[in-house]
Design brief:
- This protein is of the alpha+beta class and 274 residues long.
- The chain has 11 helices and 10 strands.
- It has helices spanning 23-26, 29-33, 43-46, 48-55, 60-75, 79-82, 96-105, 110-123, 140-149, 159-178, 222-225; strands at 129-130, 132-133, 184-191, 198-202, 207-211, 215-219, 231-238, 242-244, 259-263, 266-273.
- The strands form 3 sheets. A 5-stranded antiparallel beta sheet has the order 3-7-10-5-4. It has a 3-stranded antiparallel beta sheet with strand order 6-9-8.
- Strand 1 and strand 2 form a beta hairpin.
- It is globular.
Amino acid sequence: MDDTFSPSRHGLGHSTNLVGRPSAWMASPGFNDAPVALHIWGVREMNPALFTMLDQAETLAEAGEAFLAYMVAMFGIDPEQRDAAPGSRKRFRSSFLRLIQGWGFDSNGPEGAVLKGWVESRFGILPSFHKEIIPDTQGPVWQAYVAERMQSRFHDNAILVQLDLLFEFCQWAVARFAYPGQSHLTLYRGINAVDRHGILEQQSRRVAVIRLNNLVSFSSDREVADCFGDRIITTRVPLAKVLFFPGLLPSPLLRGEREFLVLGGAFRVSIEDI
């Protein structure tokens, strides 16, 4: 979990996005302190059958099964349809499941680049790290990130639309089953070399505002987070920023580390030595 940030990039983002909120505000500690609901324009309106079906679910497990069934029907992402047979001309079909799995292996791999690119395109928040710190949007590090983000093997089958649906389903599930009535969760993240993170405000040795990447992993288990660095940051993460959490789907994805995928930005954190 080594996603670092250059302080000079604080607030850098696109002026437009698909959620109708200022990008700089969504990346700020002010949003994290007092979040509002985020919805990607048109997703729920263009998929009324999905949300009608979800409203009939009595448990999160039922809702997860219904969501997967819808995604299979819409995008053909079950294993038999997704994987081409040897020698076949059938084209590989990109899947949001493959991206989440790839992120779990290496958040700086090509799947991670696509996910960071989705955050950039939908929420206007630019990534600050991919394999190394991205100091600007003109240099070779940015260009390498863009090249990996745009690899054609991950950009068939309306992959960004799949991620839009995943985010909207996650937000529906958070409110309906997983964390009804809650606005935040306390989550943990292991880090090394705190000074390499974008320290925007150092309130004390143990309390700071730091800037994390535009998509970042946290764990709900402090002991798990201990394995990823020599210090632990603890923060209140707004549920409005959660893209994926363990148990969202009937799948082992990210369950081992109790990993939450969260839209990034500046967070107020406490920092503890392990």
